[in-house]
Amino acid sequence: MALLEVRDLSVVFERKGEQPFTAVDKVSFDVEPGQTVGLVGESGCGKSVTSLAIMGLLPRRGAKVSGSVRFEGANLLDLSDKEMRDRRGRDLGMVFQDPLTSLNPVIPIGLQVTEVLERHRDMPRKKAMVEAAELLDKVGIPDPTRRLSEYPHQLSGGMRQRALIAIALACRPRLLIADEPTTALDVTIQAQILALLKELVRDMGTALVMITHDLGVVAGLCDEVNVLYAGRVVEKAQRHELFGQPRHPYTYGLLSSIPRLDAPRGEKLVPIKGSVADNIPWTQGCAFAPRCPNALDVCVNVTPAQEDIGGGRLLRCHNPVRPEVAEEVTTA
Ligand SMILES: Nc1ncnc2c1ncn2[C@@H]1O[C@H](COP(=O)(O)OP(=O)(O)OP(=O)(O)O)[C@@H](O)[C@H]1O
Ligand SMILES: [Mg+2]
Q1: What is the residue with the minimal CA distance to atom 8 of ligand 1?
Q2: Structural domains of the chain in order of their starting residue, each with its CATH number
Q3: What is the pLDDT of residues 169-184, one digit of tens each?
C-alpha cells in the first residue's frame, strides 16, 4: 500500500446564486515513501485546490470534497479538524504558494522554526536555536543567526519563501506537499531549494508531491507526473516516458512551448493557442478541445474516458499525438 493514496478526489465550490464549480474532478494518484509525484498544469487547473483538499485546509462550507485521501490506510477526509491539525504537525508538511499569508506576521522567523523543532521533535530550546540557524542556512538565507530574530515583513519575498521551506523541513514530515515552492525565487536559489528537496526525499524517505507549472522543475525532480487540465488528470506517466513521448496534445503543447538548449538557433517556440477561458465543460466533451490542434468532432461531443495505454501510463484523449510525432519533442 502506498503512503498516500488519493482516489477520485473531487472539489466542488458552491456559491449562493451561482452554478457549482468543479475545480478538481476525480483526481487519483499514489505516493510512496521516497517518491516524488508531480502535479503539473497551467494556472487555474486545480493544483492548489487539490493540495488544500489533501491537507484538510479547504473551508468546510462552500467547498464539497469527495473521494478519499488515504494516509497509511486512514481516510484523512474522515478526520476531525483537531485530528487533522495533529497530523499536519507530525506527518504532513506543506509549503504554500503564498508565503506572506502562511507565515505568522507577529512572531520572529526564528521562533517559528524553533517552535516546530521543540514541539514536534522534542528539542530543547538551545539546540533548536542552533538547528533553526542551520536550516535557514540550508535554504540559502544569508546571515541566518541574525535573521532568526527578524519578523516576516523584514524579509524579502524570496527570503520568506525560503523561511517557509525551512519550517516545512523542520517538521521532517513523512509527506510533503510543495506548491510552487520556487516560482518566486531566482534560478540559483531555485536550484538550491530543489537540491534540498531531493536530499530530503533521498535521505529521509519523504514522500513528495511537487506542484508546479514549470516543466524544468518536473524534469529535475519528479518520478511520476500527473498532467492536470481543467481539474482532471489528462495524462499520467513516469517522467522519462512523459518527456520522451508526450501523448496528450496538451502535454505535447506544454513541452513544445519551453526552450530547448539543443534546438537549432532561431527555431520558434510553439505556444498553446487560446486560454482556459475557451474550455468546454468536461460533461460535454474534452475541456481542451477548443484549443487542441488534434481536435475531431468527437472531441466536442463525447467526454474522453481515461485509458490505460500500458507501461503505467494513463491517457484521456480521443486523438492522441502519434508516438513517432511525440518523440520529436523529446527534451529530457
Ligand atoms: N475558494 C474558492 N472558491 C471558488 N473557486 C475557487 C476557490 N479556490 C479556487 N477556486 C477556483 O478553482 C480553480 C482552481 O484553482 P487553483 O488555485 O487550484 O489553481 P492552480 O492550478 O493552483 O493555479 P495557479 O497555477 O495559478 O496557482 C480556479 O478556477 C479557481 O478560481
Ligand atoms: Mg496554485
Answers
A1: 49
A2: 4-227 (3.40.50.300), 248-261+269-331 (no CATH)
A3: 888 899 999 999 887 7
